[in-house]
Design goal:
With 269 residues, the chain is of the alpha+beta class. 47% of the residues lie in helices and 11% in strands. The relative contact order is 0.12. The structure holds a DNA duplex (13 and 12 nucleotides).
DNA sequence: AGCCAGGCCCATT
DNA sequence: AATGGGCATGGC
């Protein structure tokens, strides 16, 4: 067991609420521990614990997690803009609480294919088993590790009818037929269409991948929770497609952030 | 026991 | 373009 010099970093509680940021459904690889959380991303790991007026972040790659938690971004500016919106004013706090994490695109593609018509505790369990069985030191598995499995393997970890989606998507990426980096070059609209060529990726999952994996805020994932929220906000019954159009028009380039605050407010009542 | 979950695919219209 | 049924699994 090599000895590691633990580095640590203090983060102000005014800049982020770790509990809300981790528990709002954008990440599935975190574990509550005494006084904080363990957080995993790709092959990296940190602990983040609460102290009196701050959090203490410990990792062997603290710079990765400083960026991961989006602490370089000016969320006060985002919140000021959103706070001016009538429909949001009750959901926007006085200082940044939730931040959109900067996660890995491939990890998001796999994770949100799994998320479809599924519940969060079970999603976390499936992803955890995949990391334990396919990942090096329980890291998030590589594309090739995913692509070299069988449908039956994926069924054995609980993926059900999503098993072929995961395998076929991994194969498309591993073969180069789908280029994860090409997404960066596309407009959000074109990127969404491109992502939807992957098996198991529909409109909602594509929006989540763009929001959490590519940091595109001009998306609005419409899921079962948003469908409940929408009626409260607009007081009209429309199709999910119309919902997304209207929500994007309402919240513009900050839709993804608005969605996350709304999602969080609704789930916590 | 039965409903539901951060929906997608596919067949019909 | 838009709708509707079917779907594996297990948390609650």
């Amino acid at each position: 067991m090599p000895f590691l010099y633990n580095l640590f970093m203090k983060i102000s509680k005014n800049d982020i609420d770790i509990k809300q940021t981790l528990e709002c459904g954008q990440i599935f690889r975190y574990i509550p521990i005494k006084g904080g959380y363990e957080v995993y991303s790709l092959d990296k790991y940190c602990t983040i614990k609460e102290c009196n007026d701050c959090y203490v972040l410990e990792s062997d790659d603290e710079n990765y997690f400083y960026n991961f938690f989006a602490l370089n971004d000016d969320y006060n500016a985002y919140l000021n803009t959103l706070r001016a919106n009538e429909k949001l004013k009750n959901c926007i706090p006085s200082s940044p609480t939730i931040r959109i994490l900067k996660q890995d695109p491939f990890e998001m593609i796999i994770s949100f294919i799994i998320s479809a018509n599924n519940n969060i505790p079970r999603i976390k369990g499936i992803i955890s088993r995949l990391c334990l069985k396919l990942g090096v030191n329980a890291a998030f598995p590589t594309v090739n590790a995913f692509a070299s499995q069988s449908v039956d393997f994926y069924k054995s970890v609980g993926l059900g009818y999503r098993a072929p989606y995961i395998l076929d998507t991994a194969k498309k990426i591993a073969s180069g037929e789908f280029d994860i980096n090409y997404v960066y070059k596309l407009s959000t609209e074109d990127a969404k269409k491109y992502l939807m060529t992957l098996p198991g990726v529909g409109p909602k999952v594509a929006d989540c991948i763009l929001l959490f994996g590519y940091n595109r805020f001009d998306v609005f994932p419409v899921d079962t929770w948003v469908k409940k929220i929408y009626l409260d906000l607009f007081n009209e019954e429309v199709s999910p497609i119309k919902m997304r159009e209207n929500l994007l028009r309402e919240f513009g380039d900050l839709s993804g952030i608005a969605q996350q605050y709304l999602f969080n407010a609704k789930r916590n009542y």
